[in-house]
Design brief:
Elements (H helix, E strand, L loop, with lengths): L1 H6 L2 H23 L32 H7 L18 E6 L5 E4 L3 E4 L6 E5 L8 E6 L10 E7 L5 E7 L9 E6 L1
Antiparallel strand pairs: 1-2, 1-8, 3-4, 4-7, 5-8, 6-7
């Protein structure tokens, strides 16, 4: 003990006391303050600069409205018109309940025997890579009985529509067909 007291000086005692106070404050903050408890109210204006912000961590929504507006430049002149794209080709058909086509841009059609609900359409080009849709609907806006329409393509590029009643039995029903390429 005598050896320890011989090395005690005022400076050693104050330095050790300062160390305990400093560590105690950090420990208190670590234990009693939760994550994200320091907000804009605790940070003085100008206390955080560019060097304290991690690169790419701010989003436009983090900036004030006036800061966002100041980043906008003037609108430049319009560029030249680009070349015309490939035209989208669409084919369609509207068919009456008896199987007779009413309107459309198909090249040919074939309706299997009456009551079969099966219709085959041929268009100006192979449409096997296109999208098809058909829905039950009249050609003149009158009501029709409910039913289903399914669509598929054939290996030679034609489109087949099958109409059925709600029970799934083949039936000639009016429908509209759209083929989008």
């Amino acid at each position: 003990m005598r050896r320890l007291t011989s090395h005690l000086t005022y400076a050693n005692v104050i330095a050790t006391l300062a160390l305990f106070v400093a560590l105690g404050g950090s420990s208190y903050a670590a234990i009693h303050l939760g994550r994200n408890t320091v907000g804009s109210a605790q940070i003085k204006t100008g206390a955080v600069g560019s060097s304290e912000v991690r690169n790419h961590s701010l989003r436009a929504s983090d900036l004030s409205g006036s800061a966002r507006r100041s980043l906008r430049g003037q609108i430049g002149p319009a560029g030249p018109q680009g070349p015309a794209g490939t035209p989208a080709v669409s084919y369609y058909a509207a068919v009456a309940a008896g199987g007779s086509p009413y309107r459309g841009n198909f090249k040919g059609e074939d309706h299997s025997a009456g009551g079969s609900g099966r219709y085959t359409f041929t268009f100006e080009r192979d449409v096997s890579a296109c999208a098809y849709t058909a829905s039950i609907g009249t050609i003149d806006g009158t009501a029709t009985e409910p039913g289903l329409a399914t669509v598929r393509n054939t290996t030679d590029g034609q489109v087949v529509v099958q109409t059925t009643d709600v029970a799934g039995n083949p039936k000639d029903l009016p429908f509209h067909l759209i083929v989008a390429c």
